[in-house]
User: Fold Allophanate hydrolase subunit 1 from Rhizobium ruizarguesonis.
Amino acid sequence: MGGHAVLVEFGATIDKRIHDQVVKLDAALKAAPFPGFVEAVPAYASILVCFDPLVADHRTTEAAIAELLAAEVPETIGAMREVEVCYDPDFAPDLDTVAEASGLSPEDVISAHLSGDYSVFMYGFAPGYAYLAGVPKAIQQPRKPAPIRGIAAGSVLIAGPQCLVSTLTMPTGWWIIGRSPTKILDAASNDRPFLFDVGDAVRFRRISRAEFDARCLA
Assistant:
């Protein structure tokens, strides 16, 4: 990838077994960086390994990666993060539509969403946008035909097997089924601006509108 990076691809689908390999290599690079290593950028099924071209090159980087892939690396277990979500109708304009398309009631959609086995697969698109995999098949829907502008920060979005909590007011073509007061992005923090690390597990916890309002006032 250009003159300063190597892309390591493990597959081409959203699959936890594939992503586990991404997380394993990411952890190995952090534990034993090779001379010239700058950073690693994990994605769904690949990881971009960036190097300093004054110290390393593609050949030496590929050799270092191959050595790490062949080594026995302990399994990396991410932290469990909790995200509060309110499914009040004002916050969930697409909940009824998802329910109808899924052949379920809105409460069934909420129950399914809360039961998902979520983990953070990657960051992308906008600051703090952590892409989660694990939406139950029963409520998976393709993206909307066209994006909608001005969707509030904190919106809980789903599309296919993916889920995301928006951090900025942005357009989206995903389905809006709730809103969260949980702070995913802390732009004022230099040490830890993001709540999640790639590989973390996430569980959603339902809260009432009154609890949501109280969190926002705190």
Summary: Residues 16-31 form the longest helix (16 residues). The first strand starts at residue 5 and ends at 9. The mean pLDDT is 93. The chain has five helices and twelve strands.
